[in-house]
Design a protein that fits this description.
5 helices; 5-stranded parallel β-sheet; alpha/beta; 139 residues; 40% helix; Rossmann fold
């Protein structure tokens, strides 16, 4: 039996966390180990503790807030996490899919420039689309 596919996702919106679970776990024919977190702090914590091995693919939401201090929060901190992961030797080669509600081309270009493997717009993606993304990236 082959190893399960390890997918890590950071998504702040509960509805889309459930959508990811449903899309990837229910609609995939592969064995999958899916870890989902809702904040950047938690994501960094889990990834730096080397969850059960390095993920095969990472999904990142863009609009996850990152609390800087008691008075300041960064809104699009998912891009900061993308940049941080691309600069980290452990994650620089892991495919990263941005899963975002933002459709703006300039934001998509910025994510690609920072190292996103793919950019998927939430409102346009169906469950099967996410499974296809995973399948195509991991071929």
């Amino acid at each position: 039996m082959s190893q399960p596919i390890k997918i890590f996702a950071m998504e702040s919106d509960e509805f889309f966390r459930i959508f990811l679970y449903d899309s990837i776990l229910v609609h995939s024919s592969s064995e999958i180990h899916l870890t989902v977190t809702s904040s950047i702090e938690e994501a960094l914590n889990i990834l730096n503790q080397n969850l059960p091995g390095k993920p095969d693919i990472i999904f990142l939401g863009l609009s996850a807030p990152l609390k800087i201090d008691d008075t300041k929060t960064v809104a699009l901190a998912g891009l900061d996490l993308l940049k941080t992961l691309r600069e980290d030797e452990n994650f620089k080669d892991v495919p990263i899919v941005i899963f975002s509600k933002y459709k703006e081309r300039n934001l998509q270009k910025r994510a690609k420039k920072l190292g996103a493997t793919k950019y998927v717009v939430k409102g346009n993606a169906m469950s099967r689309d996410l499974v296809d993304v995973v399948t195509s990236i991991l071929k």
